[in-house]
From TrEMBL:
Full protein name: Extracellular solute-binding protein family 1
Biased composition (Basic and acidic residues): 33-47
Keywords, alphabetical: Signal
Region Disordered, annotated ranges: 28-50
Signal peptide boundaries: 1-24
Transmembrane segments: none
Coiled coil: none
Keyword Signal among UniProt keywords: yes
InterPro entries named in the record: Bact_solute-bd_prot1, SBP
Length: 554
């Protein structure tokens, strides 16, 4: 999920060097499986769509799998679940994550042509297009045709259509993807990550104040600061957000706009949500909050590690933040004092006090996984990918091994009690010991897995339940931005960088008049950079998306 989704918010392990790839990719031991596959053509095996191709060959093979998220901490083969998957399929994974800047690492690999066997990265990354256009990754449909027609049985036609390029090929398969049809099918089971959070004990001590209007919001922050000036000797932070970066702050963009229920389109035309009067009104509310000393300087400089430390200490009174990204901190607070956790409440709203329109999983999902042209064994690679996206693979990676981590209890496939207990009490320890429940989320299908998930417990249940019925599919608004190297993409990048500069200035403005001056200057600059071209480009993409999705809404 922030792109989410935001989504968790999840990813994999430390990145060795380009040399590690070349060594692994050229090692004689790994090539033996490839040679063996060549000696036994797929035609002779006579695979059908109904036969899981991975069952044909379960001899040992190790694939290098790169995950483009520096924070991903887990290693394959150290936990019960990944050991089970390797024992069953023969496939071992050498998980690699970048040690520093993800974009730099991807660009280095692309430039040198040294891509590992599998690559997982956000669908929104420029590197996806670079790999496809650079002819560095293989079409999944061609691999399926040649080695494993099972792909067509286990893949979702809507997702395949969505990710099929103009050349008729699909190069990457998404995780955490939900089509508009899935929203019809799964209804209120689909939840959002977007929440307005308050510290339970403080909020209740203030009398559970209304915070939907600018006046109520400001009064609650003021009262919290007066009643709780510090938390364990450290100053209270009245209002927390995602971190500020060079292109803005997601809490103050999509999150806030969704809470204000600002429409993304009107009469088939994209709506410029940034200029919506309701949105500007709330930005001015935050300016006033800063003038009143309610916007701590910390929130403008802190990055994720500092924020997590402060969350675990309960130093924020309120936050506009993604709920799943603070699970460990919630657990720590809950263990110390169940009343000190964060709960979701109705937050900033528009003048009509309309219910928020929160962003749920979209058809684009969160990440895509691609298979490199350098892959050491094409047949085993596509067959393993097909296994992972099948219901069997989803069950194996989510629940683990039957009788070891799960069983059928009261007619439901579910974790054994001691496994569920660790999942709910210490997620980090659970990942290391059991490796289940989306520890390895690269191809997780979040439409299938809730059937096996243990019921949500506090302190997480309330947050999740609060989003039910408020979550919407915004798939048609996905993937609208132009390619970074195009004329429109270059303009868009400049506009976003300009926004990143003025957003803090708007909040720091000493008066509304100064705010207006900065705001109007931004709109003029945006126009002079050529933003109209970007808007025109995005409108065309949006119309194409609507057409693509119509087929699956019949």
């Amino acid at each position: 999920m922030s792109k989410m989704l935001k989504p968790k918010s999840l990813l994999l392990l430390m990145f060795a060097l380009v040399m590690a790839f070349t060594t692994a990719c050229s090692s004689g031991g790994d090539n033996s499986a490839s040679e063996k596959e060549e000696e036994k053509p797929a035609e002779e095996v006579k695979l059908t769509q109904d036969q899981p191709g991975w069952q044909v060959d379960t001899s040992p093979i190790t694939f290098d799998w790169y995950i483009n998220f520096a924070w991903f901490p887990n290693k394959w083969g150290e936990d019960i679940t990944s050991q089970y998957v390797t024992k069953k399929t023969g496939v071992n994974l050498n998980l690699i994550v970048p040690a520093g800047n993800e974009a730099e690492k991807m660009n280095t690999m692309i430039a040198s042509g040294t891509l590992p066997d599998f690559i997982t990265l956000g669908w929104y990354e420029d590197a996806v297009k670079k790999m496809i256009e650079g002819d560095l990754v293989l079409p999944l449909n061609e691999l399926a045709d040649q080695y494993d027609p099972y792909f067509y049985k286990v893949s979702d036609p809507a997702k395949v259509s969505w990710y099929t390029k103009d050349d008729g090929n699909i190069y990457g398969y998404p995780n955490a993807s939900s089509s508009p049809k899935d929203y019809e099918k799964f209804g209120d089971n689909i939840t959002s990550n977007q929440t307005f959070l308050v510290r339970k004990d403080m909020y209740e001590a203030l009398g559970s104040p209304e915070m939907r209007t600018p006046e109520g919001f400001l009064k609650a922050l003021e009262d919290a600061k007066k009643m709780f000036p510090d938390v364990n000797g450290q100053p209270l932070i009245p209002f927390g957000l995602h971190d500020f970066h060079e292109k803005g702050n997601s809490s103050l963009e999509g999150y806030l706009q969704n809470f204000l229920a600002i429409p993304q389109d009107k009469d088939g035309k994209l709506n410029d949500r940034t200029t919506d009067p309701e949105y500007v009104k709330w930005l001015k509310t935050l300016r006033l909050a800063n003038e009143k000393g309610l916007m701590s300087k910390d929130i403008f400089v802190d990055k994720r590690p500092q924020m997590e430390e402060k969350m675990a200490q309960g130093r924020y009174f309120a936050m506009l933040y993604q709920r799943s990204d603070m699970a460990n901190q919630q657990n720590a607070l809950f263990a110390n004092d169940p009343n000190s956790v964060y709960i979701a409440v109705d937050g900033p709203a528009n003048s009509n006090l309309d219910q928020p329109t929160l962003s749920g999983p979209s058809i684009s999902g969160w990440t895509v996984t691609l298979i490199s042209k350098n892959v050491k064994d094409k047949a085993r690679a596509i067959r393993f990918l097909d296994y992972l996206i099948s219901e069997e693979g989803q069950r194996d990676t989510y629940l683990g091994e039957k009788g070891v981590t799960w069983d059928t209890i009261d007619g439901k496939d579910q974790f054994l009690p001691e496994v569920a207990q660790l999942l709910n009490s210490d997620r980090g320890a659970f990942d290391k010991k059991y490796g289940a429940s989306h520890t390895f989320w690269m191809l997780m299908d979040t439409n299938i897995t809730p059937a096996w998930a243990p019921p949500a417990v506090e302190p997480f249940k309330q947050l999740e339940d609060w989003t039910r019925g408020k979550t919407e599919s915004f798939s048609q608004f996905d993937q609208l931005d132009p390619d970074a190297s195009s004329e429109e993409g270059i303009i868009n990048d400049k506009v976003m960088n300009e926004w990143g500069k003025i957003l803090p200035k708007l909040i720091f403005a000493k008066t509304d008049a100064e705010f207006d001056q900065i705001w109007n200057g931004y709109l003029e600059k945006r126009e002079s950079l050529g933003f109209a071209k970007v808007h025109e480009y995005r409108q065309k993409e949006y119309e194409e998306n609507v057409k693509k999705l119509e087929e699956f809404l019949q």
